Automatic annotation (TrEMBL):
Entry EC no(s): 1.14.13.149
Protein name: Ring-1,2-phenylacetyl-CoA epoxidase subunit PaaA
InterPro entries given in the database record: Aromatic_CoA_ox/epox (IPR052703), Ferritin-like (IPR012347), Ferritin-like_SF (IPR009078), PaaA (IPR011881), PaaA_PaaC (IPR007814)
Assigned keywords, A-Z: Oxidoreductase
CC per GO annotation: cytosol
EC category: oxidoreductase
Record flagged with keyword Oxidoreductase: yes
Source superkingdom: Bacteria
GO biological process terms on file: phenylacetate catabolic process
Organism listed in the record: Neomicrococcus lactis
Alphabetized GO MF terms: phenylacetyl-CoA 1,2-epoxidase activity
């Protein structure tokens, strides 16, 4: 049956009257640019696609805590440590909102989590690169959280209600993340020659992977079109990437740092900056598990999950006890 749905064959032959009415309602909501809510009928492909996108997004937030958490104990001052801790904690929160949003589509959180732990789900390739110096905290905040914002602001209008609403709060926190990254780089860039060199080196390493966060070129991004028809994605990968490049060129100048791309130059005719080819082979290879830190990141996540088992058991035992007590009270009441 599922194969029929996806082949675009005559739907009236396979859909029940309820499904046909549901599909008509779904189509109307999408054409009005309104919102689909968890209890609404939705096509199986929409549910599947959203579940994949929202859960991958959640996984990225959670795995994304690692490169920065790694620097909390080495932050150069108490102030920096407090800010970095708050930032990493925000990312945990983003993961939690997003797992909650994904669960409303009908897949339980433990199943989504298993998909990650068993390597069946992807997360953003950027987090498979190491954070080598303190300046990387600046470059990650400025470029990685910056790219996340460029990607996520349009997602605040995503047709799936719980996803769009989670995104509103996440974007507010991401702007703070980007500002703190920019400020770290600004201070380093205006510090000693060694500090400036460290800032430049971090930007040199993070620039291309940050541009790749928008995903493959449009010509090579088969899911994008459908996602745009469903009002989930609002701009193509290349459009968002261009918007981001145009934004960071000016910011890099203000920082007194350069971007490591000899082809970067203003194109008067297009009204945008041209930029050089990105290494998409490297991107595919990192996604496929061969980045510098893939193994380490997954190992760390599995260990953290195992070490957290007692918390889950305690929470489940407490929930069972509370439920039993509530049932007993109800019995007495009756
Ligand atoms: Fe985040
Ligand atoms: Fe962030």
């Amino acid at each position: 049956m599922a194969a029929h749905h996806e082949s675009g064959a005559d739907l009236s032959a396979v859909l029940s009257p309820e499904d046909l009415a549901g599909q008509a309602n779904f189509d109307r909501i999408i054409s009005e640019d309104s919102r689909i809510e968890p209890r609404d009928w939705m096509p199986a492909a929409y549910r599947k696609s959203l579940t994949r996108q929202v859960s991958q997004h959640a996984h990225s937030e959670i795995i994304g805590m690692q490169p920065e958490a790694n620097w909390i104990t080495r932050a150069p001052s108490l102030k920096r440590k407090a800010i970095l801790m708050a930032k990493v904690q925000d990312e945990a929160g983003h993961g939690l909102y997003l797992y909650s949003a994904a669960e409303t589509l009908g897949t339980r959180r433990d199943e989504l989590n298993n998909q990650l732990l068993e390597g069946r789900a992807k997360y953003s390739s950027i987090f498979n690169y190491p954070a080598r110096t303190w300046a990387d905290m600046g470059a990650i905040g400025w470029l990685v959280d910056g790219a996340a914002i460029a990607n996520q602001v349009p997602l605040c209008r995503a047709s799936y209600g719980p996803y769009g609403r989670a995104m509103v709060r996440i974007c507010k926190e991401e702007s703070f993340h980007q500002r703190q990254g920019w400020e770290i780089l600004y201070e380093l860039s205006n510090g000693t020659p060694e500090q400036k060199k460290m800032a430049q080196d971090a930007v040199n390493r993070m620039y291309a992977p940050a541009l790749q966060m928008f995903g493959p070129p449009d010509s090579d991004s088969p899911h994008s079109q459908q996602s745009m028809k469903w009002n989930v994605k609002r701009f193509s990968n290349d459009e968002l990437r261009q918007r981001f490049v145009d934004m960071i060129v000016v910011q890099a100048e203000a920082l007194g740092l350069t971007l490591p791309d000899p082809d970067l130059k203003w194109n008067e005719e297009r009204g945008h900056y041209d930029y050089g080819q990105l290494d998409w082979e490297e991107f595919s290879s990192v996604i496929a598990g061969n980045g510098p830190c893939n193994t380490q990141r997954m190992q760390r996540r599995r260990t953290a999950h195992e070490e957290g088992a007692w918390v889950r058991e305690a929470a489940a035992a407490y929930a069972a006890k509370t439920a039993a007590a509530a049932a007993a009270t109800e019995l007495i009441g009756a």
